[in-house]
Each structure stands twice: as C-alpha cells, then as structure tokens.
Amino acid sequence: MLERKQALMICLIIATVFYIVYQKTMNYDIFGLPIPKPHPLAFHRESVDLSDKLFTYQLNLSYFEKEFPALQSYNCTLLIDKKDFCHSANTKPLFILSIKSYPASFNRRAALRKTWAKEKEISRYLMKPLFLIAASPSQKQMNLVADEDKAFKDILLWDFMESHHNLSLKERCFLEWLFDNCQKAEFIFKGDDDGFVNPKALVKHVRNTANASQILHGALQRYSTVMRSGKYRVSNSIFPYQKYPSFLSGGGFIFPGGHIPALYAVSMRLPVFPLDDVYFGFLSLAAGLTFRHDKKFYVFGMEDKTCLYKEALFVHGITTEKLLQVWRDFQEKKC
Ligand SMILES: *[C@@H]1O[C@H](CO)[C@@H](O)[C@H](O)[C@H]1NC(C)=O
Ligand SMILES: *[C@@H]1O[C@H](CO)[C@@H](O)[C@H](O)[C@H]1NC(C)=O
Ligand SMILES: *[C@@H]1O[C@H](CO)[C@@H](O)[C@H](O)[C@H]1NC(C)=O
Ligand SMILES: *[C@@H]1O[C@H](CO)[C@@H](O)[C@H](O)[C@H]1NC(C)=O
C-alpha cells in the first residue's frame, strides 16, 4: 500500500516538473500567465565616443537625459503591429518601402498607394510598402488610422506622440521591429511621405551596384554644420562640435537588411539624438557601416521633367498632385 502511494507521489512530482518546464518553454509561469520576455538586448544606454576618419565625437548620456529624457527611456510599444509582414514573402527577396507618415496625412497615403507604395514583384524582388506612424492626441484620427489599416494592412503604429524630435524614436523603434520580425529583408528603403520613389529604379540600382548589400545608399550630407537656432537647433551641451559626421539625408535612403542586428544593437546603447537623420548617421558610424552617395537621390527637388523622374531613385518634397501626374505620364509612356 505504501509503495503505491510512493509511486503515485513520484508520478505527481514528475508531472509537476514537466508541467513547469513546459510552461517555462512556452513563456508562461506556473499559473499560466505569460512571463514578460526580456528583450534580447535590454537597454544599457551609455556615453560613447564615436570616431570617423577625421574626428572624434563624444555623446554624453547625462546631457541627453537632462534635455531629452523621454527619447532615452521610451520603450517601443506598438498599437498596430505586423507580425507576419515578412513571412508572407516566402522565399522571394524582400524590399521594404517604409514611409514615415503622420496620422493626419490620409490623402498623402492614399496617393502613395495609388502610385509607388504598392505591393509588387519587380525582377524577383517583392516590394512591400509599410507606413510608420506614431500617435495623435485626436482619438478620431487614431480610429481612422485603425480603419485604414484594416483595409490596407500596411501600417505600424506606435504609442508615442508624433513630434519633430520624436522622429528619432520612429527610427529606433523601427529597427527594433525589424530585428524582432524581419531580419530576412534584403533591403529597406526608408523615406518621407512627401517623396517620389521609383521602385523599378531602386531595384535596378541595387542590382547594378557592386556590394550593394553591404553599404547604405542615399544622398550624403558631408560634415554639415550644426545649427544653433531654428527647427534643427541642437544645444552645445549635447553636441559641442561645429560639424556633424557625414550622414545620409533622411528624406529617402536605402539600407541592407544584413545590417539590422548591428544597427539595432547600437541603437540600444547610444544616447538617442533628437534629429533622426543625424541619429541614424551616429548609429551607422557606431556600427562601422559605409555609405555610398548617389546623385539620383534628389533631396532638394529636381528639374520638373517627367523623364527625369524615370531615372531618379527618389525625389523629396513632391505635392500629391504632381506625384499623381508623374505617375499618369509613366503609364502613358510619355518617356
Ligand atoms: C558627462 O558629463 C558629466 C557632467 O559634466 C561628467 O561628470 C561626466 O564625466 C561626463 N561623462 C563622460 C563619459 O565623459
Ligand atoms: C522601460 O522598461 C524598463 C525595463 O522594463 C523599465 O525599467 C523602464 O522604467 C521603462 N521605461 C518607461 C519610460 O516606461
Ligand atoms: C514624444 O513621445 C513621448 C512618449 O509618448 C511623449 O512623452 C512626448 O510628449 C512626445 N514629445 C512631444 C513633443 O510630443
Ligand atoms: C566589394 O567587396 C569586396 C570584398 O569586401 C572588395 O574587395 C571590393 O573592392 C568591393 N568592390 C567595390 C566596388 O567596392
């Protein structure tokens, strides 16, 4: 009798151990509640010294925390996620067209979807558009964005508020999303929603450029001057130098998916700089990446000729009307 009790006891213990191990491996605790998953690379932001070929720049975290505390401490939280966005590409090389947009830019997004921001296969590459949006204080707009995503399934929405400086959070959180969900992307184009993009030209560009998948492509801003007033103002304490290290204009550029882990890792470590394109430049420098300038990224506009658009990779600052017109001209083969 005693032996049977003991055997039962042993069975019970083994079953319990199995249950706990099972729950743990499935990321649930013994009460069946989900265990919060520590991110593979938890925050450890710190001051850093970055060097390019000519200069060394120190970013001192304590000044960043004083001036831009939310930028340093925000934890990326998505209100609209896309877990399967990259799986649907199967074996095709994926080229993401990511577009920074605001909740209120409904018309712009509608025009982009009618023109270049379409899911499409171009010489093997699967081009997939994805709008990167943060929150608006208007609940009405937020509801409309949610409806829009139900119809088009091409939106990532974070819970931080849209603002000029918060664009750097969009940069950082998008890298985190790519790291978590889309390391297999071959290339990522990233640009503003007031831009013209020529997807065919982008594909041609990466196919015809040597080592395209090892470098960043865009309009290089060489040692541009640090502004101390106006919209792009930066204080002396967070950046006590006169020039920035070279970076790619944030209007539109391409980076290879192979660099996602390196960029994400440094984004967890570096102070978050309040200007998004300069910030991405710091991340690239810290990750040891190289840029390739190409004059076909037109960041300051371009001569107004449809045929030039055919050759351009990207043109910044185009009105919705102009975009639709250029696209119509393309369809009618005016070039
Ligand atoms: C950052 O600045 C603070 C305040 O001036 C200073 O105490 C600290 O040593 C600096 N950190 C580094 C890494 O230089
Ligand atoms: C972000 O998450 C970390 C770790 O869970 C936490 O310590 C920190 O307070 C969070 N930051 C904010 C702003 O909620
Ligand atoms: C930036 O986002 C953070 C987090 O949501 C928010 O606290 C802050 O107010 C935002 N900045 C602006 C200027 O809206
Ligand atoms: C491409 O990369 C290889 C190996 O890193 C290098 O030897 C070669 O010079 C590169 N080609 C160009 C055009 O940059």
UniProtKB/TrEMBL annotation:
Keyword Magnesium: no
Family that this chain belongs to: Belongs to the glycosyltransferase 31 family.
Location of the protein in the cell: Golgi apparatus membrane
Membrane topology (UniProt): Single-pass type II membrane protein
Listed transmembrane segments: 6-22
GO cellular component, one term: Golgi membrane
Pathways per UniProt: Protein modification; protein glycosylation
Name the UniProt record assigns to this protein: Hexosyltransferase
Domain of life where this protein originates: Eukaryota
Keywords assigned by UniProt, alphabetized: Glycoprotein, Glycosyltransferase, Golgi apparatus, Lipid metabolism, Membrane, Signal-anchor, Transferase, Transmembrane, Transmembrane helix
GO molecular function: protein N-acetylglucosaminyltransferase activity
Gene3D superfamilies: 3.90.550.50
Cited Pfam families: Galactosyl_T
Residues making up the signal peptide according to the UniProt record: none
Entry keyword annotation includes Ligase: no
EC number: 2.4.1.-
